[in-house]
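quick one before i forget lol
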Amino acid sequence: MSPHRKPIHMNFVKRAGFSLWSRKGRTLVTLSTFLVISVMVLAGVLVKDATAQARTEAERSVGAEVNLEMDLNGLSAGGGLVAPQIDATTVDELGASPLVQKYNYSMFDRGVVKAGAELVTEGVDSSTSYMGPDGTPTIGILDSALLPDFRSGNFTLLSGAHLTAADKDKHLLLIEERLARKNGIETGDRITLGANEGKATAEFTVAGIFRDPRPSSEPEPEHLVNPANMLYASVGGFAGLNSTADGPTQVRTATFLLKNADDVRKFKEEAERIAGSALDGFTLDANDKAIRQMTGPLDSISSTAAVAMWLIGVAGAAVLVLLVNLAVKQRRKEYGVLLAMGERKWKLIAQQALEIVAVAALAVGLSGLFTQSLTQSAGQSLLGQEAAEARDRLDSWQPPAPGSTGLDQGIDPDDKPVENADPIDRIDVRLAPADLATVGGVGLGIGLLATAVPAASVLRFSPRTILTKGK
């Protein structure tokens, strides 16, 4: 072996370093390109991680909820007029699933307030409702604390205790403070209720007094009565007052709070297996509206970051391919001399790859110094704008007039905003070693791709042709 060939074989790594140092302009352009790619990719990864964490926290705060409700579409298609009902015992079986954390169900009927108590008459004209004299909507409930208005904080329990599953077969009531104040009723007092039909009556003990913030002049939207007169009763006791036959309590709605938001599909399958035909006329819907309302802005900025990341990545890779290809053409004579001295072609390609990888590694390291703060500032600003726009849309929603579905006015009641589910306007960007590893992997892949394209021309080099003809 010639003594002149040994340094060439041993020092292609050193040659890469000399090449980067001697061609500072090209190295700086390549570094800038890689730095832009690294910053954008790392920012995209950080935004994705931050929004995923915020979404997880939102799901944890809201909880996974599945509602058993009447299938309005099926009822209309079948021409039915009677709302379906399901045995409470069947709902209890579903609630006993290990997937369920808590559950609730309810039934509705008219309760008639008997002598010794009077309904609140100030405000809503009772003649507009179908409850009749001394009649008021009464909701039989398994667990009043799980009612949406209590869970959201809209209703406040002022005294006493909530109705629970342990009270199911007792005769207990929750009443509104205005009804209690008018009749001088306190927790522990009794109210006599009459059945919707017939002469049956039962005494109910006031277990608690709550506050409904709606004014007496604003009708309760579903039953068009003064909200001060709404009653909530233990479901078994109230069902027994209005039942005309022996048998399990029949309910029309149920709510299941799952332990894990990822178990919604599994719970639906289990419910269909356990309940079978008892679910006919009902739907099992996940109440993810609150989560969608809260995470809408997160989805928007996450999508924007992903698109920007891909565009910059593809454009950067194209620029790098052009830079490396141009560098190969400019260094043809250098490569020709090296090949004529016996250097292997694969080492020339390895030198190119080493130069690109070294610049890429430096760019990734530099990006890690400031991308977290940059992403926090830019992401927070963008998220704040998206959240503000989302809040404006929610605030602009107007409910339909009392007694109207709103469909004829172009108002969809399902678009009603969920209370206490404000759009998330804050993310916490954290840089983890795994994020840098991800960006490093992307940078390495782009660098090797940029090297692979010009490598084909290196493999075709002929030292004699390069040195004699310059080609």
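fyi The chain has a mean pLDDT of 79.
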